[in-house]
Amino acid sequence: MEPSIVLAATPIGNDGDASPRLREEIEHADVIAAEDTRRFLTLASRLGLEPRARILSYYEHNESERGPYLLELARSQRVLVVTDAGMPSVSDPGYRLVARAREAGMSVTVVPGPSAVLTALATSGLATDRFSFEGFPPRKPGERDKALAAVAAEPRTMVYFESPRRLPATLSAMVEAFGSGRQACVCRELTKTHEEVVRDSLGALASRFDEDVLGEIAIVIAGADPQAADFAGAVDEVMALEAAGLRLKDAAAHVANRDGLRKKDLYEAAIAKRPR
Length: 276
Hints:
Layout: E1 4-8, H1 20-28, E2 31-34, H2 37-46, E3 54-57, H3 63-74, E4 78-82, H4 95-103, E5 108-111, H5 116-124, E6 131-135, H6 141-150, E7 157-162, H7 167-178, E8 183-188, E9 196-201, H8 202-208, E10 217-221, H9 226-243, H10 248-259, H11 263-273
Parallel strand pairs: 1-4, 1-5, 2-3, 2-4, 6-7
Antiparallel strand pairs: 7-10, 8-9, 8-10
Helix pairs in contact: 3-4, 6-7, 7-8, 9-10, 9-11, 10-11
């Protein structure tokens, strides 16, 4: 097979989702860069494969150091990049390597396959015409709350990943940021034997998942309705006018009169959104 960098999707839970192309690449690669070499070898064993390739670790904390080395190898060898589950470069190492390879004019091949993002989106029953992948929310509560507040008016469906032990706190924070009535879906252990998909309001989901759970988690959040998005934008404008030197009450009155909104609602929302 020709020298190249190959990104290949691996099963996210069900080994039956391993594609024929993935199997072929594993069998014929010269070098395999794996997020966790032991987990990759376990997967290969379950698939009945015996890689002849040299297997290297390639994960978040050695990505910048190992990337240039993989590029050099790919000039004369076929380098297969895999992660623990799903598609490399989607919330996993890979995109920097691809960017460097493209800049160097090197060949990059993608073997498509399982994706936790698309699987969660498809099974959620929420709008799929426009969506955004937001990755893992920040771990620190203050940073997490700020990040969620920043997308409260986002009209697209949003997909998040989260650890099982942080799920209760994150759902509670999402209730605060998006409102208890916003529709959402918690997806646990997708494609595995004990898969669980629960769609409900954020308030109901926060009550249901109020303790740590087991397994891989994806959360799908419905986008804000246009009216809510317009109001959030108006609040942002009020705060921008205040930052420019206008009194908050005057800024709220100006935007309220122009947009047909209640001054009191804008004023109180701007107060609540101020950094604490």
